[in-house]
Design brief:
Helices cover about 35% and strands about 15% of the residues. By secondary structure, it is of the alpha/beta class. The chain has an eight-stranded mixed beta sheet, with helices on both faces.
């Protein structure tokens, strides 16, 4: 897949937010997962920029964005996202988020419902539901926190850890290119900010708001995702009125780099139908 040029710009404020942007048209914002950054979306920007102003951000404390003082309130991400929309002069935007980015998208929907045109929620979940075990990822909150931050508390280097863990959440037959792309992004983690993010996100939930999502929503999941398996997608389908589901065959937790053509086809088909809802 041929890549094209994008511009890296900064959204002013505290903290400053770094984004890559390409194309013209309605605003579409890509939100990465907890172990990634905007590099994860570089196989999407060329395709989506043909139809949208396509923006991939580094969340606060990631990539080229600034770190920050104090603890993280998970909704700080949504307040940062509001600044991104304002920067591009968009009243509404299409929001595509994967894993943690999907949870940010759901939080943004709860806090700023009038600014969301559509949602593409990729390999994500809303939070734990004590009445339905399908709602949750495969790890408990405690397991998730321990597995994510323990190596760094013990002094691990992000580059070495990325090399060791690259590809572990992908489907077994993932390509070397997909693995390398995941490693490249994970190698750039800001350790202190990452630890803050893990702790703030662990128990965060928007389960109660699923019923209030009233914009076109696409659930896009890898059929071999070991962390947020298809049962999570089924749960969300039942709780978001009118949601559509697309399963990416042969993909794990990162279909946008494991199966980029299939991911792009599914997401673009949905987004182009609703393109003009953003503005």
């Amino acid at each position: 897949m041929a890549e094209t040029a994008w511009e890296t710009v900064y959204v002013e404020g505290s903290p400053r937010i770094c984004v890559d942007v390409a194309g013209e048209g309605p605003l579409l914002v890509f939100l990465h997962g907890i172990g990634g950054n905007k590099l994860n979306w570089h196989m999407q920007l060329p395709e989506f920029s043909r139809h949208f102003t396509a923006v991939a951000w580094d969340a606060r404390g990631y990539g080229g964005s600034d770190d920050y003082d104090g603890d993280l309130d998970f909704s700080d991400f949504s307040r940062d996202l509001e600044r991104v929309l304002d920067h591009f002069g968009a009243k509404k935007a299409h929001i595509c988020g994967t894993s943690m980015g999907g949870r940010i998208a759901q939080d943004f929907m709860a806090l700023y419902p009038g600014r969301v045109a559509t949602l593409v929620l990729c390999d994500t979940f809303a939070g734990d539901d004590e009445n339905d075990e399908r709602a949750s990822r495969s790890q408990t909150i405690e397991e998730f926190v321990e597995s994510r931050i323990r190596p760094f508390l013990d002094g691990a280097d992000p580059v070495e850890l990325a090399q060791q863990r690259g590809g572990r959440l992908m489907a077994p037959d993932h390509t070397a290119d997909a693995r390398q792309r995941a490693i490249e992004a994970a190698s750039l983690l800001h350790v202190e900010s990452y630890i803050k993010t893990v702790r703030a996100s662990a128990a965060f939930t928007r389960v109660d708001n699923l019923k209030n999502i009233d914009v076109p929503t696409l659930l896009l999941f890898g059929d071999q995702d070991p962390l947020t398996p298809p049962t999570v997608a089924a749960y969300m389908m039942e709780h978001i009125a009118g949601a559509e589901l697309a399963m990416i065959e042969g993909a794990g937790h990162m279909p946008y780099i494991e199966k980029p053509d299939a991911f792009n086809d599914a997401a673009l088909s949905f987004l182009k139908r609703h393109r003009d809802l953003a503005g």
